[in-house]
Amino acid sequence: MTSPTLVWFRDDLRIADNPALTAAAERGAPIVALFILDEESAGMRPLGAASRWWLHHSVESLRARLAERGVPLVLRRGAAGVVVRAIVRESGASAVFWNRRYASAERAIDSELKSGLRSDGLEVQSFAASLLFEPWTVQTGAGTHYSVFTPFWRACQALPAPRLPLPEPQLLHPGSAGVQRIVASDTLADWNLLPTAPDWAAGLRETWTPGEPAAHDRLREFVATDLPLYDQARDEPSAGATSLLSPRLRWGEISPFSAWHAATGAGGSARFLSELGWREFAWHTLFFFPNLATANLRAEFDNFPWPQPDAQALRAWREGNTGFGIVDAGMRELWHTGHMHNRVRMITASFLVKNLLIDWRIGEQWFWDTLVDADAASNPFNWQWVAGSGADAAPYFRIFNPELQAKKFDPHGLYVQQWAADASPLKIVDLGLTRKAALGAYDVVKRSG
Ligand code: FAD
């Protein structure tokens, strides 16, 4: 068999545990690897700036690693439906393989392509790679999806255990290089994914090494040193006890199967595994509620009387100038590193939504733009969780007090010291008054529910 197999990489920028790539290697024909920057297809959410930075480096790493193994990575920009067909024509591919995606615009593209290419006589195969439990496989007794985490996770655990990760496939095929000569690729730099004027990415460069090898290094290090402490220390932002795997999972540099088995093999932590479970639940929710980033999951929240957003307060929140140490530390950590500790994400999000009375969608968009792990499911899911409008959400009336949260989770002030030592202590709001206003606004929702 000589006509090539096209492997279309998307949110799976890895070689190990990549079922589509492994199946292509097993097919025995030359492989053409493809990555598409799709900013044109209907309904695709434009990537945030920090995501674009990560993507650039992760694609570069994948390209280099595939090249070492004799496989060219073709880069193209455009609507995926058009580009995949063009590459099939140009390369003479007779098979197209990919790992499945679960957001609605992406699913529409993929299913249209699958049926179109199949009716043109191509072999098309898709694989499960990014989730431990694909959304439709987890069902209630009544055959519906879940809207509460605990029974969802119990149901997942009653399913067959997640499969073992696949080893790196043997890729060297003498024909692959020849394909490279006939299929042209864009130059990554021409995609302008990196910020230039100004170049605000110094903090990101300092913090992260995108790419598959660094993801595996971090997983190994986490399991060896941090996992044993995870249950006690995961909520303390200064402890550095969490895995920092989120951007790596978001871009698929490492699979959840690898994370799952590394953790369980090391004696595990039910808590850590259940955090991976929250990621599954966020995707389960997005699959059945595609408008998660724009619409309240609980429709009664459509009646929430959001006032006109206070532009000055919003700016103070974004820049970490609210006068509340833990909020400011979190927002500055986010701006500098593209990441924020989970506890602090909850505190800063709650502050925006409940103390500044600013719509969760505005905060979600800021996180979307600034997080390196900005995830189409986890980000809106968690914002709605904090706002009270989401699946299995925190009750609206449980309003975090950022000062008490700081006392509890940063008792020695180490985190605030690290990120906001020079911030102003001038508070932009009164916690008691704003809490009262938030509960008053919520009464409208309650009355309408
Ligand atoms: P660990 O504690 O080591 O957890 C391991 C993995 O489990 C994470 O890498 C992540 O993939 C998953 N996970 C952990 N907590 C959650 C959670 N609450 N929801 C979904 N998955 C989880 N996570 C994202 O990956 N992308 C986002 O865009 C995102 N936005 C968020 C917005 C808000 C307002 C809040 C409160 C949380 C958000 N989270 C998001 C969830 C969580 O904060 C991050 O996954 C976590 O901080 C990542 O750090 P870690 O990898 O060290 O986590």
Rg (CA only): 23 Å
Principal-axis shape: globular
SSE pattern, N- to C-terminal:
EHEHEHEHEHHHHHHHHHHHHHHHH
- What portion of residues belong to β-strands? 5-15%
Strand order of the largest sheet: 3-2-1-4-5
CATH class of the largest domain: Mainly Alpha
- The domain count comes to 3
Low-confidence stretches: none
**N-to-C terminal Cα separation, in Å?**
62 Å
Largest sheet: 5 strands, parallel
Write down the overall mean pLDDT. Answer: 95
Attached small molecules: flavin-adenine dinucleotide
CATH architecture of the largest domain: Orthogonal Bundle
Strand-pairing-aware structural class = alpha/beta
**Can you count the helices?**
20
CATH superfamily of the largest domain: DNA Cyclobutane Dipyrimidine Photolyase, subunit A, domain 3
Outline the structure in words.
With 449 residues, the chain is of the alpha/beta class. It folds into three domains: 1-129, HUPs (Rossmann fold), CATH 3.40.50.620; 131-163 and 212-288, Alpha Horseshoe (Serine Threonine Protein Phosphatase 5, Tetratricopeptide repeat); 299-445, DNA Cyclobutane Dipyrimidine Photolyase, subunit A, domain 3 (Orthogonal Bundle), CATH 1.10.579. The protein contains 20 helices and five strands. It has helices at 19-27, 49-68, 80-91, 104-119, 149-158, 176-182, 202-207, 212-226, 230-233, 246-250, 256-265, 270-288, 311-319, 325-337, 342-355, 360-370, 378-387, 402-409, 414-420, 431-448; strands spanning 5-9, 31-37, 73-77, 95-99, 123-127. The longest helix is centred in the first third of the chain and has 20 residues, at 49-68. The radius of gyration is 23 Å and the shape is globular. The model has no long low-confidence stretch (mean pLDDT 95). The structure holds flavin-adenine dinucleotide. Residues 234, 242-246, 249-250, 275-276, 278-279, 282, 342, 345-346, 349, 367, 371, 373-375, 378-379, 382-383, 386 line the site of flavin-adenine dinucleotide.
